[in-house]
Amino acid sequence: SHELTQPPSVSVSPGHTARITCSGDALPNKYTCWYQQKSGQAPVLVIYEDNKRPSGIPERFSGSTSGTMATLTISGAQVEDEADYYCYSTDTGGKEVFGTGTKVTVL
Amino acid sequence: QVQLVQSGAEVKKPGASVKVSCKASGYTFTSYEINWVRQATGQGLEWMGWMNPNTGYTGYAQKFQGRVTLTRNTSIRTAYMELSSLRSEDTAVYYCARGNGDYEGAFDIWGQGTMVTVSS
Fold first, then answer.
1. Alpha-carbon span B41 to B77, nearest angstrom
2. For the stretch B7-23, what's the b/e string if a residue is b when 16 or more beta carbons lie within 10 angstroms of its beta carbon?
3. Which of helix, strand or coil describes residue A84?
4. Among B46, B39, B30, B38, which residue's Cα sits nearest to residue B99?
5. What is the pLDDT of residue A2?
């Protein structure tokens, strides 16, 4: 069973805000990062340490945490943001784990 | 530039083993961990394990304990993932990814992926 649960899909209109949640009992004690994966490509890191952006990632991507939930927010979503998004952290057993993944559709 | 380049696609029979390579360039190989992640077609990402290329220390996901071995050759800046006792469920794209300590170990560089097909 998965330790990090995400909604299967999120839809957003261009220019609007998309929020993707990631729920896990161990999240209050561990950092969460987020990966974007476009069709047929390797994943790309978009958020690390809960809320930091690597260089080159647009400012419209932001991360936050509250209790057992982490959230990736895309403010002013663009068509090119259409992708699968995965959270990543540590489970209650101390092992690394990806979330179940969320397909973001921008239309 | 900083990159990880993986070996080509493999087709294996059930019960066989596969060894995938991941060659690093553009940075000091021994300064960053290498992780391995796989993805079955149409499925999510699955973390398999990590290796410290400097010490050779490894850690594996419980699911793969006893079946996966991570090694490296520092002279040619290459990491390897070997998976044994292959079954059809192991058909997937296998990625290596660099863990960056400046990002609390997050995977900032990924290989292009290696397709492994297990079929009789």
1. 29
2. beebebeeeeebebbbb
3. strand
4. B30
5. 56
- 8 Å CB contact between B81 and B94: yes
Task: Please give the Cα distance from B89 to B91 (Å, whole number).
Answer: 5
At A46-97, the pLDDT tens digits run 999 999 999 999 999 999 999 999 999 999 999 999 999 999 997 777 788 9
Percentage above 90 pLDDT, chain B: 94
Instruction: Using a CB–CB cutoff of 8 Å, tell me whether B29 touches chain A.
Output: no
Chain A residues within 8 A of B46 when measuring between CB atoms: 98
- What distance lies between CA A56 and its chain's CA centroid? 17
Inter-chain touch B112–A44, beta carbons under 8 Å: no
Q: Output b/e per residue, A5-34; b: 16+ Cβ within 10 A.
A: ebeeebebeeeeebebebbbebbeebbbbb
E strand or H helix that includes residue A94: none
Question: Residue for token digits 């058909």?
Answer: B91
Contact between B104 and A48 using a beta-carbon 8 Å cutoff? yes
Q: What residue type is B87 in one-letter code? A: R
Contacts of B97 in chain A (CB under 8 A): 43
Query: Token pair of B73, please?
Result: 């050759």
Backbone angles phi, psi at B30, to 5 degrees: -80, 0
The answer to whether the beta carbons of residues B16 and B81 sit under 8 Å apart is: no
